[in-house]
Design goal:
76% of the residues lie in helices and 0% in strands. It is mostly helical. Helix 1 packs across helix 4, helix 4 packs parallel to helix 7 and helix 7 packs across helix 8. It has one domain. The longest helix is centred in the N-terminal third of the chain and has 24 residues.
């Protein structure tokens, strides 16, 4: 019985950590944006799955942010998406989307400093957002990030040949 209570408390603490990071990351957006953006997503199931897979709660929060922002962008019409892309490219702090995203990236920087956080998720996040704004699929945005990561490693890195062969 005490094992059950301990596991329940651990899951509760894990979920609370994830929810706190999500709320913090969305403080730069208009009130209610987080609730609207996460509507229709099974974040509870995702959090439970990642918790069971022993993923640290901050990495789980980064993954949840990725899902939420992706859903937010996918719900935009093409004109709204183009306007948001332009605001990101121009770093237009006068637009609500850019202000919210800029604050979210500040929070991501803090999240990245937490031990155990998935560097891949944090480093690929800007590529994911811009890729989604450009209309790329998740796989295409991830491939774009991977190619950029390989470029940073240099032409002689063994992963470059492996990636091109596959």
């Amino acid at each position: 019985m005490f094992g059950f209570i301990r596991r329940w408390r651990e899951r509760r603490r894990y979920r609370r950590t994830v929810e706190d990071w999500l709320a913090t990351a969305f403080r730069g957006f208009a009130p209610g944006t987080l609730a609207g953006a996460r509507a229709g997503l099974d974040l509870d199931g995702t959090v439970a799955h990642l918790s069971g897979a022993q993923v640290d709660p901050v990495s789980c929060a980064v993954y949840a942010l990725r899902l939420i922002v992706g859903a937010m962008i996918e719900r935009m019409d093409s004109d709204e998406r183009a306007a948001c892309l332009a605001s990101v490219q121009n770093r237009d702090a006068g637009t609500p989307f850019y202000r919210g995203l800029d604050y979210l990236f500040e929070v991501l920087d803090r999240m990245q400093q937490t031990p155990g956080v998935s560097e891949h998720l944090v480093e690929s996040f800007p590529y994911y957002v811009v890729g989604k704004l450009r209309g790329l699929s998740t796989q295409e945005a991830d491939a774009w990030w991977a190619e950029a990561a390989l470029e940073r490693m240099g032409t002689e890195h063994p992963l470059r040949e492996f990636a091109r062969a596959g």
